[in-house]
Design brief:
heterodimer; A: 261 residues; mainly alpha; B: alpha+beta; Rossmann fold; OB fold (Dihydrolipoamide Acetyltransferase, E2P); six-stranded mixed sheet; five-stranded antiparallel sheet; 20 strands; globular
Chain lengths: 261, 372
């Protein structure tokens, strides 16, 4: 048998370093004691059972789901047109436009959050789920654009021309050719942008006012030690759901790029 | 074929910034003919096709289809349909839905079904209705693209390098099939190709393009026998080019002094309109005779030495180096006896019938595409 090379050992060490802390979350969520420390006192599912009884938590969950859904639709719809333009056309200021769209990836969240709060207050918009959604759309747009750009990259432009040639106008072509062909990319974009919004804390903290999203609610609960195991249980569920969403998104993205178009 | 013009291009020009993709294109296409636009890549032939289809607007001039000016008419309202180079088969639709695409919502469903079946049988894909777009071979994709365009009953079918994605055997088979299809339907086909053999075997007429200009429009036989200049002569088949001087011109005949071969009287080529005293003449490789001894029955002969032999199967090509002529002269001999008669270094004689010397007019400097 071949001896594992240093590189393989390094890779495993890297992965453990990266994911071990995260693994403590589900581990302690089954701990019957309320103090998060070894040794584990005993195993229980109580924390999961009690989740359903907490009305404010459920409300926060609904807030997050709603914000995530609207954000995903807005960012993906805007990203769809931007991505098509970036791939299909060559225009003046294209590089600058693409750079600007990608900018939210690198601006510190706290800067975006505080400047958005100032802006919204200036416009007379009180912090609410609406302002959170607007902020999240801004953050999610670069994800949508980059996923959809790769979907359009593999999309033969003559497909759209063939549709015009066969008598269809711009809108009919978009509906009958463009949308179905990039559909897997659209689904991938919706899933990813939803996840971006669902997990986001800083913007939501600044912009949500008295309508907390789930991450904001969790943060507020961490101050109460008795509630902590509950939060761990919730966190474990979210962790699992997010991972599943990303796997699903990857699947759709791959389908959109490996298909022989 | 009738004398009616189905497409007329009048002084068509397409300019991209300072780049002239096509200029001064005047062309009448007759109802029911198979017309090819032939030229090297980048010569503007695809631009002309796309302007007829409506994907690009000419920057100058007019395009008329069936007598109607197409200015401002978008591709989806033109009586033309196109077979794309990539075939552009919709990947999310099966064969039947691909073919039916242009009829959906415009024609009753029962009629669509009947026309799809008819179209698929026409391109010999009968029964493949449910086959997915990604389960098709290259040849089948091409047939689907043909059926999808022809089902629209266009006045003109446009084909953009329709055979370039196929392997050689299939390409030759499809050449005959498409030619037969075109003749039985009586629809005008306009094909863009860079393959001279494809253009020669399929077309009624060919337009040869270089650097955005239409150099010559003629039947394949005329293009081969009377090309208008050196570029066309060398693009259609192989051609030996020799410099010559005109000594006298009388009644459609030229007395010339040709390099190597000496004085002869040849026919003046009406297609070669660029005239001067110093001209060039062309000789097809298969028009030359190659002999070991000086041939007696040829009016013009030349002594040389074999510099290269290429065996093609049905033909053998010899390159013969001749004193005072820069380039070796190419000679093509049919392979009757399955032997290579001469080897590299052999001294040989070339014999020539005067009738096979083609006047190509004044040598033109390699044309620079006009830029402003």
């Amino acid at each position: 048998m071949k001896r594992p090379s240093l590189l393989v050992i390094y890779a495993f060490a890297y992965l453990i370093f990266l994911y071990l802390p995260v693994m403590f979350l589900p581990l302690f969520s089954f701990n019957s004691g309320t103090i998060v420390a070894f040794p584990i006192k005993g195993w229980t599912l109580d924390w999961y059972r009690k989740l359903g009884e907490q009305d404010t938590l459920i409300q926060a969950l609904w807030n997050s789901l709603g914000v995530g859904a609207v954000t995903a639709l807005l960012a993906t719809a805007m990203g769809l047109f931007a991505a098509r333009a970036f791939v299909r056309y060559r225009f003046r200021g294209q590089a600058a436009a693409e750079g600007l769209v990608m900018l939210p990836l690198v601006i510190p969240g706290i800067i975006v959050a505080s400047s958005m709060l100032v802006l919204f207050l200036f416009l007379g918009l009180q912090p609410s789920l609406v302002t959170v959604t607007l902020g999240h759309t801004f953050l999610a747009l670069p994800f949508a654009v980059s996923i959809l750009k790769s979907a359009f990259d593999d999309f033969d432009a003559s497909l759209e021309e063939a549709s015009y040639d066969l008598g269809c106008g711009v809108f009919e072509t978009f509906r009958r050719v463009t949308l179905p062909v990039v559909a897997p990319g659209i689904v991938a974009s919706i899933l990813v942008t939803f996840t971006v919004s669902f997990d986001e804390f800083v913007l939501a903290f600044f912009l949500s006012g008295n309508q907390p999203t789930l991450p904001v609610y969790i943060w507020s609960q961490i101050r109460f030690p008795a509630k902590l195991p509950n939060v761990l249980a919730l966190g474990s569920i979210l962790l699992f759901a997010s991972a599943m969403l990303l796997v699903l998104a990857k699947y759709f993205q791959r389908r959109s790029t490996t298909r022989d178009v | 074929m009738t004398e009616k013009n189905i497409i007329e291009l009048k002084g068509v020009e397409k300019r991209y910034g300072s780049f002239l993709a096509a200029s001064g294109i005047d062309l009448d296409l007759r109802q029911g003919e198979f017309f090819s636009l032939l030229g090297p890549s980048g010569c503007g032939k695809t631009t002309v096709l796309r302007m007829i289809a409506g994907f690009q607007e000419p920057t100058q001039g007019a395009i008329l289809i069936d007598g109607q000016d197409m200015a401002g008419v978008p591709a989806n309202n033109r009586p033309t349909n196109m077979v794309f180079q990539s075939y552009a088969i919709f990947p999310h639709l099966n064969v039947a839905n691909n073919v039916a695409y242009g009829l959906r919502g415009r024609v009753p469903k029962a009629e669509i079904d009947a026309r799809v079946t008819e179209a698929l049988e026409m391109v010999e894909l009968g029964g493949l209705h449910q086959r997915g777009a990604n389960e098709l071979s290259g040849g089948q994709r091409q047939r689907v693209a043909l059926a999808r365009a022809l089902i629209m009953r266009p006045k003109v079918l446009l084909l953009d390098e329709p055979l370039s994605a196929l392997d050689k055997k299939l390409r030759e088979q499809m050449q005959f099939e498409m030619r037969n299809l075109q003749q039985s339907l009586g629809i005008t086909f306009v094909m863009v190709t860079h393959d001279q053999y494809e253009a020669m075997t399929m077309s009624d007429r060919i337009g040869v393009m270089f650097d955005g200009r239409l150099e010559q429009v003629d039947t394949p036989a005329t293009l081969y026998a009377r090309p208008c200049n050196r570029a066309v002569a060398s693009f259609i088949g192989e051609m030996n080019i020799l410099p010559a001087t005109v000594l006298e011109e009388t009644g459609g005949m030229l007395s010339i002094e040709a390099a190597g071969f000496g004085r002869m009287r040849i026919e003046r080529n009406v297609n070669a309109t660029d005239r001067a005293r110093d001209i060039i003449v062309g000789i097809r490789p298969e028009q030359l005779e190659i002999k070991a001894d000086k041939p007696a029955d040829y009016p013009a002969t030349l002594k040389g030495k074999i510099s290269n032999v290429a065996f093609y199967g049905e033909n053998i090509h010899y390159h013969v180096a001749v004193e005072n002529i820069d380039k070796p002269i190419a000679v093509s001999v049919p392979n009757y006896f399955h032997t290579v008669d001469f080897n590299r270094g052999d001294a040989v004689w070339l014999g020539l019938q005067v009738a096979s010397v083609i006047d190509l007019g004044k040598e033109r400097k390699s044309s620079q595409r006009e830029k402003t």
